[in-house]
């Protein structure tokens, strides 16, 4: 049986969190779809709250801790990524963005990615398309067409809410599973047009 590596990022700050709950549901649905295709999945879930200090120290010093380095390697070495963030002030959380700020901006080239987000109200649902999707497009990842947003009412007891969220999860999971099934980490190449991460128009010094 073929084996694929799936990395899951949850940027929820509380414990338990609706962000982690959504990440788990997306993971379970994706794994089920891959199993149906005869593909075994090795899943590694990363709670960014557990490495928040490591991320900040890396931003200040330029050097990752062993714990952060392992998380980065897990994400960049995966066949597919599920990334879920809470929405704060109409965009992804600072912790979520900071993690992607410290990884090489070429390391997610051709990576299949499923994006998800949570918030207290459905008014923030467009953040997936104007914040998360552009960021992963900039990183040259392959973002699946269906993104999944869950507001507080989506976890309620209403019949419409119970039906709608699982449908979105299943559709997105099917799209990701299809890409992960044919993903080949060894065939990925760096973007030949990407700037070197150390490039600076000021002669090599990083601006604050």
Q: What attributes does this structure have?
A:
21% strand; alpha/beta; Rossmann fold; 40% helix; disordered C terminus; seven-stranded mixed sheet
Explain how this protein is built:
With 208 residues, the chain is α/β, with parallel strands linked by helices. It has one domain (2-184): Flavodoxin domain (Rossmann fold). The chain contains 6 helices and 7 strands; from the N terminus they run βαβααββαβαββα. It has helices at residues 18-36, 52-61, 66-76, 94-101, 127-138, 159-181, and strands at residues 2-10, 39-47, 80-88, 91-92, 112-119, 142-143, 148-151. Strands 1, 2, 3, 4, 5, 6 and 7 form a 7-stranded mixed sheet that branches. α1 links the parallel β1 (2-10) and β2 (39-47). α1 packs across α6 and α2 packs across α4 (94-101). The radius of gyration is 17 Å and the shape is globular. Mean pLDDT is 87; it is low at 190-208.
């Amino acid at each position: 049986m073929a084996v694929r590596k799936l990395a899951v990022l949850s940027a929820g700050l509380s414990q338990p969190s609706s962000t982690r709950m959504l990440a788990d549901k997306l993971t379970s649905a994706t794994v089920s779809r891959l199993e149906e295709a005869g593909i075994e999945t090795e899943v590694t879930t990363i709670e960014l709250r557990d490495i928040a200090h490591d991320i900040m120290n890396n931003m200040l010093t330029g050097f990752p801790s062993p714990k952060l380095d392992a998380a980065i390697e897990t994400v960049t070495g995966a066949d597919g990524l599920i990334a879920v963030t809470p929405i704060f002030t109409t965009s992804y959380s600072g912790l979520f963005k900071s993690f992607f700020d410290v990884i090489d901006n070429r390391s997610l080239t051709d990576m299949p990615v499923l994006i998800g987000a949570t918030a207290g109200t459905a008014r923030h649902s467009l953040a997936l398309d104007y914040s998360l999707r552009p960021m992963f497009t900039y990183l040259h990842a392959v973002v699946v067409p269906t993104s999944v947003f869950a507001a507080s009412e989506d976890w309620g007891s209403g019949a419409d809410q119970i039906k709608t969220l699982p449908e979105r999860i299943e559709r997105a999971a099917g799209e990701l599973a299809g890409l992960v099934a044919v993903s080949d980490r060894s065939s990925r190449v760096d973007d030949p047009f990407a700037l070197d991460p150390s490039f600076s128009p000021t002669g090599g010094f990083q601006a604050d």
